Amino acid sequence: MKHFFSIILVFALSALHAQSVKSPSNALEVTFKLVNNGQPSYSVNYKGKPVILQSSLGIKLKDKPALDSNFEIISTKADTFNESWKPVLGEKANIVNNYNELTVSLKQKETNVKMNIIFKVYNEGVAFRYDFPKQTELNYFIISDEVSQFNLTEDYKTFWIPGDFDSNEYVYNETKLSEIDNTKLNLNNGIGVKSIPGKYVVQSPLMMKSAAGIYINIFEAAVVNYPVMHLNVDGTKFKLTSQLVPNAIGDKAYLQTPCVSPWRTIMISNDARDIVGSQLILNLNEPCKLDDVSYIKPMKYVGIWWEMHVGKSTWDYAGSQNASNFAEKPVASGKHGATTENTKRYIDFAAKNGFDGVLVEGWNVGWEDWNGNWKEEVFDFTTPYPDFDLAAVTAYAKEKNIKMIMHHETSGSVANYERHLDRAFDLMKKYDYPAVKSGYVGKIIPRGEFHDGQTMVNHFNFVVRRAADYKIMVNSHESSRLTGYSRTYPNYIAAEAARGNEFNAWSTGNPPNHETILPFTRLLGGPMDYTPGIFEIKMSYYDKNKTEQVHTTLTKQLALYVTMYSPLQMAADLPENYEKRMDAFQFIKDVALDWDDTKILEAEPGDYLTIVRKAKGKESWFLGAITDENARKSEIKLDFLTKGQKYKAIIYEDAKDADWKNNPMAYKIRTVEVTSNSKINLVLAPGGGTAISFEPIK
Amino acid sequence: MKHFFSIILVFALSALHAQSVKSPSNALEVTFKLVNNGQPSYSVNYKGKPVILQSSLGIKLKDKPALDSNFEIISTKADTFNESWKPVLGEKANIVNNYNELTVSLKQKETNVKMNIIFKVYNEGVAFRYDFPKQTELNYFIISDEVSQFNLTEDYKTFWIPGDFDSNEYVYNETKLSEIDNTKLNLNNGIGVKSIPGKYVVQSPLMMKSAAGIYINIFEAAVVNYPVMHLNVDGTKFKLTSQLVPNAIGDKAYLQTPCVSPWRTIMISNDARDIVGSQLILNLNEPCKLDDVSYIKPMKYVGIWWEMHVGKSTWDYAGSQNASNFAEKPVASGKHGATTENTKRYIDFAAKNGFDGVLVEGWNVGWEDWNGNWKEEVFDFTTPYPDFDLAAVTAYAKEKNIKMIMHHETSGSVANYERHLDRAFDLMKKYDYPAVKSGYVGKIIPRGEFHDGQTMVNHFNFVVRRAADYKIMVNSHESSRLTGYSRTYPNYIAAEAARGNEFNAWSTGNPPNHETILPFTRLLGGPMDYTPGIFEIKMSYYDKNKTEQVHTTLTKQLALYVTMYSPLQMAADLPENYEKRMDAFQFIKDVALDWDDTKILEAEPGDYLTIVRKAKGKESWFLGAITDENARKSEIKLDFLTKGQKYKAIIYEDAKDADWKNNPMAYKIRTVEVTSNSKINLVLAPGGGTAISFEPIK
């Protein structure tokens, strides 16, 4: 289904001062205007009321006149676009891409440089980008700053994390816009490398809510060959301005015409479900560029990973704290997790429970002093520790029909990783690993670069493209956050790029509202490998002196498999912990990873979220409901189920006295028969959740 | 032959103020002393007279106390070393490595950091380095500065090029030390990227001569995992201080103990021949680390290269000035040099004249806008232009017993090159290319890095090691200059890394004295691919309006094959230019590339140089004699020839009226029979040279 409708408007230049375009629903309206001395600006109304006041647009160039004023409009063009497309893996089998478009073609007086600003207006939001056509007046150029403004009308409630060029692994703060202040944060939060550029800089996606109940989300899509955009907040005027992440020498982006900036997106709705359920970011990316997607498959996996986080075993083999001396007769510390034997145990567990894969971290030489030293040659990505037998592991996994997931920790030494990438992928193909989890803990090498700069954005995207050459899927951790590139390269199956479950094992952790915010922020850009499924909630289980814990109940961990979309899902806890609670584990075994349909039933950022999804190509549905630190009850209508069909609903819910803090592992499971006319009462404990599977009764 | 003799001296600490060590000949003496507040210092005497006055030593660290004072001597150790070793390819079959060594072990008060300073004293020079042993007090560290001083005694005549972090392709200036001033240079010299850090900074090797005729050369050896050292000149006090090349954020070197600095070398002699003939730099490098050196062979080659420099053809195919659009139906400009047909012509010429190889530049897509744009993804090193058929060329070369030399121009985009390196080398192996010429024209990417920084030093060395994995020889152009790494990795067969012959084609060129200085500077570190052999000296031959020319006579071009040592030698001119003068070309056909022995007969930097070499495993000798802009006569005794053996000497010399400027191509060739008792009169024109081959008469 593709419908295209164009009008090209060319007026007398003097008449062209304001141009408007509305969403297909007519609720949103964007107006473009040249103001003052030919300065581009825009504003946005929602249902007739201003939401974004007149905000300036522009780009500053290094060693060239700024592209922020002195423009005249050459022409404007209006388009309507309505299609649907099928993601390789996704929340829906068909994604509707329906918007009205306005292209404003500008020319700068004196320089004659041409620049277009393109607006796309969807029902749930507005997007715009800068477009630099091929021209003799502008070929190679360096962006020194982007000055895209977002002038808000009031002091919104805001869910924010500090601007940080190197990390997005923060808990969310919930304050007024005017109260944003990075100097007031407790930064003893388990994050190793922080580069916070200023007091009032925050990251996008930035989720906000007005007093009148208007939800706004500012983000970006299709960050390709461009740095990440953070937002500089003027809390007195409620004005946000783009702040691009610099490179080692302070430049922002090196470009050559023809080229485009990423899309700057403003989602706006009076219903939070429109935002959390939006496919806007994916829609704004280029369609799939891979010819062969046959190897891109969802994966449910276990792995040698959480046992290191809880201190049961270690990534490193020798504990010598000097990997460069590793060749000098290392002595095993006895605590190494990634042994052939231990791997076989995980493979056995995965095979027995119908899983797809097993991840092994710490399999390769280099972990002795991998972290915190800004060391360049850390890993070679091809040399296993003496107690990890690649061939034996592969043979055993094959016998059990399990796929192995490779692990490439780079320590942030990207120069080193790129030098070894072909060899690393060659090894993966030799041993039949279909997917890699990459890691970027540490300060970046090339030194002076940041995780969120153009260099690193290009690196993350490059790894995905090169992996595609080998038909390998990528799951990047500590990368810059996704902005929909997985539409274009669907082998980019997941990323971390936010504060994951692991922080609960050894830091202040993630507060109970954390997972109610992530779907409004990080997940808008693509799947997150959050690694849910922790059943032993309290770390005192491993060590009496530990006070750390996961800040949810056990059934909330189950619900996360539905609320945190990812086609790659880990059952992160230890096999022995699941074996004690196989009744609850059944939900993790059953839950699908790829979907025909998704419906957001209830949503309020920072408070609660209830989602149901229909398994791809099946009649099964799965529901996940989560709440923050407050208990919650609600009644859910099951009208999403197929009419006339009976279903067996297995309900995994918090026990009556459950509580994330004092009694997190108390759950009950009940089975009921339901139809589309049924209702179910959800009863969530503080920090709790409910997970339900609906299987059709034949 | 290996002789080892050690004395370990441990005195009461208070008594340990000065320690001395002499050269095996006793002519040189180095004295180490702690002065002032425990500051390390050294001085050097030559034949009893001070040459280096008390000069301080030290290293400054980032975020740690400087290692430049507050030291005490823990112990000292004296050694004597005398061995000889056989280079894979070289100027001599056996290289003698004979020196006395003094190791001073220091400990810093308060920090307890241990640092050793090691001196090696050879007959022709002194070397010292900093040695950082493994210790808990110092593990990872960042060098922010090195403060090695060289306090000279007087205002030496100095052959210098300006300090430049990005280029060493300068002509030499010949002034007093006190007259050094980079602001007075004419920088309209054809060098594309210049990064001159200050008014009084010069590059090493720095060649000097005192009024009394003492020659001094300051340089460095074994620059591995460390930036290049330039020299900051205090012209009033005749004091030089090390200036390390920074990285993008101003740091100099990232190190981990145990580690060492490069050797800082001071060659000293009253005979210039001792310096130009020294193997000191090679001796200070690690022995060969390659197991298999069977593929490392000398190569005499022609190539599609000079024809682009003279404007006859182009590197690029389409001339579109936008390689990123190359895929959009490029139209051949008709001037592309690297066609299959043209390559076959060069292969024919090479085969007919007994050459080993053919280089082809411009064979691969990317040249349309390769230069000057700081563009990251320029070349992929694997995609040929439509008119260059890799398979056909390889087949043809194989049939003619010619080896192809690959070309990898990086445009300075090293990040991009490293990403493609395995693929590029795979392609070379597939098509049986045994050697690669790499190029680094342009500003470096990672952006902010310099050609001479630690990052790039590591890159150049890395490429050589990775090439060794594929049994490939490397010839790097626009790299940092060699400091003897070819001893350790003899597949590093040559480098440019100085102002080569190419500048004569399109710039102010290289003055007639240029080639009399290079052997005292650049060539001390290893072979240079100078690309001599230009027979059509004046560029007006190609275009009447051109005034550029090579600043030598034709026979001086022949002599360069002997005076400019390299096991990789190009006959750089066009086949058709050689075909017009096959009598002179005979010398290029005959001259050897690898040697049993080398004798420096006459040498004066900036004035003249006469060298004879004996071909490896043969009785043939070859002589090269060159002069600067002044005509020169000298009588050469042939006592180097084997006694009792008769030789046919073919003498290629300037014609009577030859002159580099007005009559550069006038030569004559005469043949005489000689023995070791004979003498030959050399008569060199202004800017001229003589080349002689000595073949034993059977």
Brief digest:
By secondary structure, chain A is an alpha+beta fold.
What is the element layout, followed by pairings?
The structure is a homodimer of 698-residue chains.
Chain A: E1 2-9, E2 18-22, E3 28-35, E4 39-46, E5 49-56, E6 59-61, E7 71-85, E8 95-108, E9 114-122, E10 125-132, E11 140-146, E12 149-152, E13 157-160, E14 173-176, E15 201-203, E16 206-209, E17 215-221, E18 229-234, E19 239-244, E20 253-256, E21 259-260, E22 263-269, H1 272-276, H2 280-283, E23 299-304, H3 306-309, H4 340-352, E24 357-360, H5 390-399, E25 403-409, H6 414-430, E26 435-439, H7 454-469, E27 473-477, H8 485-488, E28 492-495, H9 503-506, H10 514-517, H11 554-563, E29 568-570, H12 575-579, H13 582-590, E30 595-604, E31 608-615, E32 621-627, E33 632-637, E34 647-654, E35 667-674, E36 679-684, E37 689-696
Parallel strand pairs in A: 23-24, 23-29, 24-25, 25-26, 26-27, 27-28
Antiparallel strand pairs in A: 1-7, 2-3, 3-4, 4-5, 5-12, 6-11, 7-8, 8-9, 9-10, 10-21, 10-22, 11-20, 12-19, 13-14, 13-16, 15-18, 16-17, 17-22, 18-19, 30-31, 31-32, 32-37, 33-36, 34-35, 34-37
Helix pairs in contact in A: 4-5, 6-7
Describe this structure in words.
Two copies of one chain form a homodimer. Chain A is globular and about 70 Å long. In chain A, 56% of the residues are buried. In chain A, helix 4 runs parallel beside helix 5 (390-399) and helix 6 (414-430) packs parallel to helix 7. Mean pLDDT of chain A is 96; it is low at 1-15. The first copy, chain A, is α+β, with helices and mostly antiparallel strands and 698 residues long. In chain A, a hairpin with a 5-residue loop joins strand 2 and strand 3. In chain A, strands 1, 7, 8, 9, 10, 13, 14, 16, 17, 21 and 22 form an eleven-stranded antiparallel beta sheet that branches. Helices cover 15% and strands 34% of the residues of chain A. Chain A has 13 helices and 37 strands. Chains A and B meet through helix 6 and helix 7 of A and helix 6 and helix 7 of B.
